[in-house]
Amino acid sequence: MTVETKLHLIGNAHLDPVWLWRWQEGYAEIKATFRSALDRLNEFPDFVFTCACAAYYKWVEENAPEMFAEIKQRVAEGRWVITGGWWIQPDCNLPSGESFARHSLYGQRYLLEKFGVMAQVGYNVDSFGHHGMMPQLLKQGGMDYYVFMRPGAHEKTLPHDLFWWESEDGSRVMTFRLADSYGNWASNGMEDKIISHRNVAVASGHAFMSFYGVGNHGGGPTIENLKLIHEIQQRPGLDDIQLSSPNHYFSEMREIDPDIPVIKDEMQMHAVGCYSTHSESKATNRRVEHRMLTAEKFSTFANLTLGLPYPLEALNRAWENVMFNHFHDIMGGCSIKEAYDDGQEFYGESLSIGAKAINAALQKISWSINTMKPGVKSLSKEKDWQLWEQDDLGSPLVVFNPLSWEVEAPIAINKKLAGVTDAAGNPLPIQTIRASRTNTSDKWDTLIMGRIPAFGYQVYWVYRDKACDPMEPKGAVRAEGCFLENNKLFVELDPDTGYIRHVIDKLNGFREVLAGDGAVPIVLDESHSDTWGHGLTQYRDEWGRFCNAELKVLETGPLRATIRVISHYGNSVLRQDISLLHDSSNLHIKVRLDWREHHRMLKLAFPVNVEQPRAVFEIPYGYIERPANGNEVPGQMWVNVSGNEPGTAEGIEPSVVFGLSLINDTKYAYDVLDNELRMTVVRSPIYADHFGERDEQSEYMDQGVQEFIYILSPHAGSWQDSGVVRKAYELHTPLQQVWETYHEGNLPQVSEGIVISAENVVAVAFKPAEDGNGWILRCNETYGREVETDLVIPVLNRSWRSTFGKCEIKTFFIPALEHEAIQEVNFVELKNINEREMSNED
């Protein structure tokens, strides 16, 4: 007679490769733990071991190949079960959406290549929170199930520990929340845990999972653990306890199909301070994620058009570094100080690889553009020691746009010039601006506004001495005293505090954007918080504010006007350069903060002039609306607060009419209370302080200088009407420049690389397919609105039409052979189950 399993005991070893130790110690611990697990498999014939993270297996393969061979054998037997098809167990709020895609791509393909299997179960038992788009990312990564532990029951109430988790696009994964720890540090208490979990299973009417094994610094199941389990199994009525794996458990649950709830929500919050700790690593992560995508796009374009070899091995190595730094105790900012020195080395290698790939691709492309001018016989530098300009023919400057739409943006040219034209010869307005150098009298650059085609480039002709007589710029901007103004915004600063007193939206009925002073630097007390922010939901204990402001006009227009505001608090200095471009409704603020406080937090506050506010935050490959209750929450590049016209009668159905977007290039933590939006700028807890004994030798985070940029963008209508998604990408993905000279070439002076007809579809990644037989284009819908769109890639001579559902991510495989149909694949670049194909329209 078959005994129905009530409790699946999951033997595992949670391994933090970095936390209170550096990665080298984690490397050694992984080998020791894997050896211990193999020993248990030899000693106990019924033992099954579970372990995640492709990175660990790669380390063992490289350093202990004989043990790796043993693991392969045990995987083939089914007794070593690989879960978590990602490179590492990442923080599940901070990496970008595309980074999650890469965890699946590189993690699952490694597992498939080395073991012949892919992980079926997503596995993040120690991550601190989980964003609401996780189900789609898991499904796209080949995983139908998910296991997590945090937030626990005391932090988030769920109707059931086993449930269907659904994301905004409709994707579902069967998900299990651990009732308590992923391990046991001793057999003391393990018996109570097993009996308790079996009782939960009996009460639920279906089986339950219980995890055991020494964790964090590795270890895994011990001999004593397994002896105790065997002893419990021999007791009357307890033979329904089984040594098992998450794969076996979910397979059983899928078969019996229990009546479990569907939950459409994010899984938050556990450690609210982790989204603002260690500013440097978070800022670097944001920068490297975008640089890698730019490197891939232009390397692909240069390979397709000019045959430049694609730097596959180097870029893959760079991604492995980035993914490793996504580990939750690294990105979460709760590791020891030395770990962040190591992390910056990993990031540094990836940034360097990305920069070299971008440079090689752009130089190859720019050198192939026809920039020859009549009368030029050969290159000669008689006119200028920097430029190759001859007579007054101009010098070519090639400007590249990595994004999938036309971008109009300021371009700073590192030379003082008399005139600039576009590729068609149209004169452009220019402005002389301060350079970063102070080289005798040579300390000036030139600013223009450029318009660059989607995923393309344009050649600009710059003239050292020849003026080009441009038209007056539309909506010219000016700065005077405490005021900035163009044709769309009027901005007034308080001369004493430096706060933004007024922002008047001239386009929308001269509406006052703020309900009070904005950009207010509020200092909060956080001495009651550990590094993680355990047990907290908010940071709102005000301690003081920056004040004693000094204001100075730096730029007066006509293309850009800037006022510098310097204010002080304690030993800290905050400098904000507040800029307005001509014909722009965005206020651009460049910040330099010299922070010298301990156990304090700095937030910038913006009261938005709306009622019945709705707060929407970007999350990886999606967005989420959260209550405006003042809780500290994670977000990515942007957050938006929109609402009704002030004075709307109570009880009137909300109809969003106005709002404010805040975009920034390095920060991940926010709170919104009623109509006030706050961005968390910096925290200064002690490194890896879990309510420990603090003394004079404790070291504090984020001491010293950091720089970042944020943008305030008022708008009419809802957040989808604000253009915030494109504006955020434009801030993070700057235009690239290459100085050129005169030469023949087979490329034109203006080029467009992609055309997408739908405004709410963004092409995030364009790269060669991993199998080398075509190319990959990944796009996502960004507004939460179903749309049909045309997609055209001229360099591939391909065009097709596709329908995107709400928040849907699509990965297109474009075969090298033009007669073969374009296919939809998943993140792993394998065909989706429905194997849909797009028809070519060429």
From TrEMBL:
Coiled coil: none annotated. Keywords: Glycosidase, Hydrolase, Metal-binding. SUPFAM superfamilies: Families 57/38 glycoside transferase middle domain, Galactose mutarotase-like, Glycoside hydrolase/deacetylase. InterPro entries: Gal_mutarotase_sf_dom (IPR011013), Glyco_hydro/deAcase_b/a-brl (IPR011330), Glyco_hydro_38_C (IPR011682), Glyco_hydro_38_cen (IPR015341), Glyco_hydro_38_cen_sf (IPR037094), Glyco_hydro_38_N (IPR000602), Glyco_hydro_38_N_sf (IPR027291), Glyco_hydro_57/38_cen_sf (IPR028995). It comes from the Bacteria. Residues 270-346 form the Glycoside hydrolase family 38 central domain. Belongs to the glycosyl hydrolase 38 family. This is Alpha-mannosidase. It comes from Paenibacillus germinis. The lineage of its organism: Bacteria, Bacillati, Bacillota, Bacilli, Bacillales.
